[in-house]
Design brief:
With 171 residues, the protein is α+β, with helices and mostly antiparallel strands. It contains three helices and eleven strands; from the N terminus they run E-E-E-E-E-E-E-H-E-E-H-E-H-E. The protein has a five-stranded antiparallel sheet.
Amino acid sequence: LKKLNHNPDSNYHVLEGFRIEKNSDDCLVVYADHFPGKIITTDIIDMISGTEFLWKGRADDIINSGGLKINPTELEEAIHKNIDMPFFISSIKHDKLGETVVFFAETNNLISIAERLDFVKKIIAVFKKEKLGNKRPRLLYIVEKFKMTGSGKIDRKGVKNSVVENHVIEL
């Protein structure tokens, strides 16, 4: 359970009747008094205490690029304060590295080519400012409008599957 009041913290708190731990993959394991056994999730966490944790992302979203394991959630958190339009970070297959990091941006409000070029320059500057190093996205996919899920979230897989090759920019 996460606090949603006017002063929320970033940690999650366990409800009464539940216990948590993390496994060797840093994934959340939940025990419930009313349920035999345990529930192993793919949620990567940092344990704060026996009843509190910080959610770091999902193990199935981890990008393996040349042996470097990259958490897209952490990258998004590092740069979101400098980007004023919808975006997400994911990956695509790469012949040599296995996967490469990709920045997907919704640019339906950038009409002219000059606006889009300015946006690309801004993105590159943000990556440099945040010192992302080898974790930085290597490609930028410009998408007019993101597909959304029924719950109002970006449909990341749907967006990845619908990208048009001529909308990619190598960074």
